[in-house]
Amino acid sequence: MFSRLSRLIRATGRDALVLWYACRNPHVPGLLKLAAILLGIYTVSPIDLVPDTLPLLGWLDDATLLALFIPAILKFVPQGPLEEANAATDRLLSRWLFWRTP
Fold first, then answer.
1. Which of 50, 25, 51 is closest to 36 using CA atoms?
2. What distance in Å separates the CA atoms of residue 87 and residue 25, rounded to the nearest whole number?
3. Cα–Cα distance between 12 and 43 in angstroms, integer?
């Protein structure tokens, strides 16, 4: 169970980086950029469906929304900018992993 959860967290984190790079591309529609911004604002906002003051449950709704909506937004990103965003993410992660290894 924890290995599945760990893979989900890693995939969502990678997808979040891909979405970040995709939103920086001028060929991505403004509506997708707006959806990504609203998702980010909701995640850090103190106003939630489940308040963050509730232990674990408050963070779980944010994590669930991120895990569901980041891939949903990425499905609508045009192929060219998506490939560029994936390449930029791979370059960043390969540099980061290079420096993290002993």
1. 25
2. 13
3. 14
On whether the CB atoms of residues 80 and 88 are closer than 8 A, the answer is no
| pLDDT the model gives residue 42 | 86
- 87: closest CA among 24, 22, 12? 22
Q: Does the pLDDT at position 102 exceed 60? A: no
Dihedral sign, Cα of residue 31, residue 76, residue 74, residue 59:
positive
Rounded CA separation 75/71 (Å): 6
Q: 């540099």: which residue's tokens?
A: 95
- Cα–Cα distance for residue pair 33/24, rounded to 1 Å: 9
- For 21-53, how does the pLDDT look when each residue is reduced to its tens digit (9 = 90+)? 999 999 999 999 999 999 999 888 877 777 767
State pLDDT tens for residues 71-98. Answer: 999 999 999 999 999 999 999 888 876 6
Report residue 64 as tokens: 């669930």
